[in-house]
Specification:
Elements (H helix, E strand, L loop, with lengths): L2 H14 L4 E6 L5 H6 L12 E6 L5 E5 L12 E5 L2 H11 L5 E4 L15 H9 L3 E4 L1 H8 L4 H30 L6 H14 L2 E2 L5 E4 L23 E10 L7 E8 L6 H26 L6 H14 L13 E2 L26 E4 L2 E4 L3 E4 L2 E5 L5 E4 L7 E2 L5
Parallel strand pairs: 1-5, 3-4, 5-6, 10-17
Antiparallel strand pairs: 1-2, 2-3, 7-9, 8-9, 9-10, 11-12, 12-15, 13-14, 15-16
Length: 399
């Protein structure tokens, strides 16, 4: 999509949302969302404030400092350069008509910290001009989070790699323990990481192998110096994510759980099936709304999923959101499935992908999390990627 095409789409959206314009702002790269939308390359020197005003109708306005008057030259619009703060305010105040609604990278009451990129003082400045500031959250998603066909392909390839690595990892653990060889969390982590490299994949951080009480820490990561040895009977959580080593590739992200035994305990089975029920209900909730063409916000999915775990009496042990957006970063800029850490009011839109990964974490015992990814196909159906875990993995050779 060219920038001119994006511009037409934005102006149409502004009319539909009854917003007079979108004011993109940055100072020293404080707003990476604006950089993404404005196609600003990472190497460009930017030391002064700039604004890019997109009105409902007409040409955009590029508001730049005389020190760096060229920073938005690659974009369409009328350039207005300022020398001092008084001139800058005069230009900004000229944007305000009678009580206009202006979209900015702002989140009321900081409900979405990932979106709150415009500082309070700049919001105050625009309010001083008589503007009502609203969130650009649902404008941005279309331009920061919707995948191309090539990105979908890269995601499916990465998801297949992860599934294969998970299977090979369970086999490794089973083989080592059945032959009474020692193996620990760090060695398993490095095994998974090496397989990713061999498959020409990248990862932002190493994958996780967490045993027993370590699996009750959602962000546990083993190290060479501190890694728990895996023994027969242990509970094991594997969390792994990667993307293909190619430009603009996007991530896949999965989690698997199992036991180093031929049979899990009754408690492990019970917690697993509660988490599975929550995962399956959340997915069915998404599927029903999306395939019926009904709008759906991220917080609604989280709450539907959370209600299952709370109803089973484990609400206090589900300590993170249900899922996160996935993109070129494993935690992408789009809508999350979240009504706990934040109230994510963004809509789930076609062409985006997110994880579904509820969990129950019992301190000092074990934690169960199951994760796959859901892609909202623009053709009106959902695609589950990364495989679906239906039962706890049991290493049968360890009977």
């Amino acid at each position: 999509m060219t920038f001119e095409e994006k511009l037409k789409d934005v102006q149409r959206d502004l009319k539909e949302q009854d917003v007079q314009g979108w004011l993109l702002y940055d100072f020293k790269r404080c707003n990476p969302l604006a950089y993404t939308f404005l196609d600003i390359p990472p190497g460009k020197m930017l030391t002064r404030r700039f604004f890019y005003w997109i009105p409902q109708e007409g040409k955009p306005i590029k508001i730049v400092s005389l020190v760096e008057p060229y920073v938005l030259d690659h974009l369409p619009g009328i350039k207005q350069a300022y020398r001092g703060w008084q001139e800058l305010e005069k230009i900004l105040f000229s944007l305000a008509v009678t009580k206009p609604k202006i979209a900015m990278e702002y989140s009321p009451y900081n409900a979405l910290p990932v979106l709150s990129r415009v500082d309070a003082g700049t919001v105050e400045l625009m309010r001083k001009a008589g503007s009502e500031i609203v969130s650009s959250a649902n404008l941005l998603q279309r331009y920061t989070s919707v995948w191309t066909e090539e990105q979908v392909k890269s995601h499916l390839e990465a998801a297949a790699v992860l599934e294969g690595i998970a299977d090979q990892t369970w086999s490794l653990i089973e083989s080592k323990l059945s032959s009474r060889e020692r193996i620990n969390e760090y060695q398993v982590q490095q095994f998974m990481l090496d397989l990713m490299k061999k498959k020409d994949c990248l990862t932002s951080d190493p994958p996780t192998c967490a045993v027993n009480e370590h699996s009750s820490d959602p962000h546990y990561s083993p190290s060479k110096e501190k890694a728990k040895e895996i023994r027969p009977g242990d509970f094991i959580l594997l969390d792994l994510w990667c993307k293909r080593n190619q430009p603009r590739a996007v991530y896949a992200d999965i989690t698997r759980v199992g036991v180093a035994a031929s049979k899990a305990t009754d408690k492990q089975k019970a917690i697993f099936h509660i988490v599975k029920e929550a995962r399956d209900l959340a997915t069915a909730f998404i599927k029903k709304h999306y395939e019926e063409g009904k709008s759906l916000q991220g917080w609604q999915v989280d709450q539907a999923c959370r209600d299952v775990i709370e109803g089973a009496g484990y609400g206090a042990y589900f300590i993170h959101r249900t899922g996160h957006n996935i993109g070129e970063d494993v935690h992408g800029p789009g809508a999350n499935l979240d009504n706990l850490e934040t109230h994510d009011f963004r809509f789930l839109i076609p062409g985006t992908c997110f994880s579904v990964e509820p969990g129950i974490y019992l301190p000092g015992e074990f934690g169960v999390r199951m994760e796959y990814d859901v892609y909202l196909d623009p053709n009106g159906y959902i695609r589950i990627t990364g495989g679906i875990q239906e039962e706890l993995v049991c290493l049968n050779r360890l009977a």
